[in-house]
């Protein structure tokens, strides 16, 4: 079996390694248009925070490690077209056109940062740093910038704000919604982080959609309906999108440009699969699929596709959008449905809040938690945690409870570790479910 994977990033690499295990006899080709693969998209923050140096080391795997696993790499090779019926891929390498055939093809070409809606967003001064060439340019330009505009208040924009504050830059953040990280947090949960950012100098431009960016002598002119700002450079911190110009039109796509796949990650064409950022993923809390570009989805879809290559046996469970990061000394983490999204949910929901010390003695920072659940059945739907203590791992427990369809009653009596120094007498995750139950009882 000859398997070709286009795209050697999180999804493609995870699929390649899993296929190597599952089908040791298969020939596995991993193609990418870049020469250097495995770069970590958030690496620029680690670089500026002096966690890693040089930036080239911000990688999760090297070419040599992949070769050592018996994979054949075809790098610096840009796929320009595929013939889904004849099973032929046409690619360009060093200006030469070549072809490669396949028995099974996995499309893992991910996404890139571009927008058709913001005029001028393709300017060189509008920094995009998902891949290494972009990050090298961004580092140089940011070092020489005093005033930086961030376009987007999601995870990329929020992390960039934190990093640039530490670098002493003047930071302006534009966001079309009215608060930071709105996809993941309800406003009251993220408010302390936002207030701390303002105290440290971030100027928020909420409810403002950037419409146009123009290169001017002084730098860049950013325009929204409400304001104009001249800055030295800007960071394009918005949603990424698939870029599928190479795709055979026989491969069905959604209107948002993602590739259509069934639950086994098969495209509309036999023997062709798609994974990672170029597909929508099923949202585990409804029957719909959404575009949720996250590393965790890319890696898990890569693991699942390996199981389905020969026979469709393992459906992809999808995502509940679990994230976590650290911003202005606060650890923030979220999974599942937010309360704000509750109005779109098919059943009535309820929420409960908890504030508790992270541990009795070691540090003892306060953790603010919120749980979202179905009012009738008490099924867990979402959770958010914010603290100066490192609570990031705790969100994975809550995510597992939600994925497993647990109720408040089941979750509040789950096992947890107790230690007199490192933990509290009841874990915040259990306490959240307990409070959820009693908030309901008190109401009744
Ligand atoms: P990608 O990483 O997009 O990789 C696709 C690969 O395909 C690339 O190597 C590309 O060169 C190659 N390719 C594309 N077209 C062709 C072609 N025609 N021929 C050959 N090769 C091709 N997610 C998180 O979960 N946590 C984070 O902290 C996080 N931080 C991020 C920070 C930034 C700045 C950005 C932009 C994104 C971040 N993300 C984060 C999102 C995350 O990067 C993506 O979800 C993830 O990279 C998707 O992996 P993928 O393998 O599907 O695709």
From TrEMBL:
Please report the stretch or stretches of sequence annotated as the FAD/NAD(P)-binding domain: 1-302
Instruction: Write out the GO MF terms.
Output: oxidoreductase activity
Q: Which residues form the Pyridine nucleotide-disulphide oxidoreductase dimerisation domain?
A: 328-426
Q: Report the domain of life of the source organism.
A: Bacteria
Cofactor field: FAD
Alphabetical keyword list:
FAD, Flavoprotein, Oxidation, Oxidoreductase, Redox-active center
PANTHER family according to UniProt: NAD(P)H SULFUR OXIDOREDUCTASE (COA-DEPENDENT) (PTHR43429:SF1), PYRIDINE NUCLEOTIDE-DISULFIDE OXIDOREDUCTASE DOMAIN-CONTAINING (PTHR43429)
- Please give the family membership noted in the entry: Belongs to the class-III pyridine nucleotide-disulfide oxidoreductase family.
Q: What is this protein called?
A: Oxidoreductase
Organism listed in the record: Enterococcus rotai
């Amino acid at each position: 079996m000859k398997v070709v994977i286009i795209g050697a990033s999180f999804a493609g690499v995870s699929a390649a390694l899993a296929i190597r295990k599952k089908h040791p006899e298969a020939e596995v080709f991993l193609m990418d248009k870049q020469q250097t693969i495995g770069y970590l998209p958030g690496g620029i923050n680690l670089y500026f925070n002096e966690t890693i140096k040089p930036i080239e080391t911000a990688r999760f795997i090297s070419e040599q490690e992949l070769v050592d696993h018996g994979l054949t790499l075809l790098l610096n090779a840009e796929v320009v077209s595929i013939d889904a019926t004849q099973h032929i891929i046409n690619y360009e390498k060093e200006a030469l056109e070549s072809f490669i055939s396949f028995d099974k093809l996995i499309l893992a070409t991910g996404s890139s940062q571009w927008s058709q809606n913001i005029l001028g967003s393709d300017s060189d001064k509008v920094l995009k740093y998902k891949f290494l060439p972009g990050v090298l340019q961004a580092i140089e330009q940011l070092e020489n910038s005093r005033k930086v505009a961030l376009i987007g208040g999601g995870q990329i924009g929020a992390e960039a704000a934190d990093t640039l504050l530490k670098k002493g830059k003047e930071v302006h953040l534009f966001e079309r919604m009215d608060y930071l990280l709105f996809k993941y947090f309800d406003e009251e949960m993220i408010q302390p982080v936002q207030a701390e950012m303002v105290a440290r100098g971030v100027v928020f431009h909420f409810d403002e959609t950037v419409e146009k960016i123009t290169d001017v002598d002084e730098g860049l002119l950013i325009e929204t309906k409400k304001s104009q700002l001249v800055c030295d450079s800007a960071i394009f911190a918005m949603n990424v999108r698939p870029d599928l110009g190479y795709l055979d039109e026989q491969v069905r796509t959604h209107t948002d440009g993602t590739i259509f796949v069934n639950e086994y990650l098969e495209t509309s064409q036999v023997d062709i699969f798609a994974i990672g950022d170029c597909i929508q993923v099923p949202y585990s809390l409804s029957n719909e699929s959404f575009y949720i570009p996250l590393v965790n989805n890319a890696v898990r879809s890569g693991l699942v596709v390996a199981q389905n290559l020969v026979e469709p046996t393992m459906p992809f469970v999808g995502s509940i959008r679990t994230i976590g990061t650290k911003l202005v000394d606060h650890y923030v983490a979220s999974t599942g449905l937010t309360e704000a999204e509750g109005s779109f949910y098919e059943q009535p929901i309820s929420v409960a809040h908890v504030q508790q010390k992270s541990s009795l003695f070691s540090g003892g920072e306060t953790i603010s938690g919120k749980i979202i659940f179905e009012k009738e059945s008490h099924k867990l739907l979402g959770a958010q945690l914010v603290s100066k203590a490192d609570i990031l791992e705790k969100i994975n427990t809550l995510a597992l409870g939600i994925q497993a369809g647990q109720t408040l009653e089941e979750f509040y009596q789950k096992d947890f570790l107790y230690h007199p120094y490192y933990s509290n007498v009841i874990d915040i995750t259990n306490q959240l479910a307990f409070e959820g139950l009693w908030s309901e009882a008190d109401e009744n």
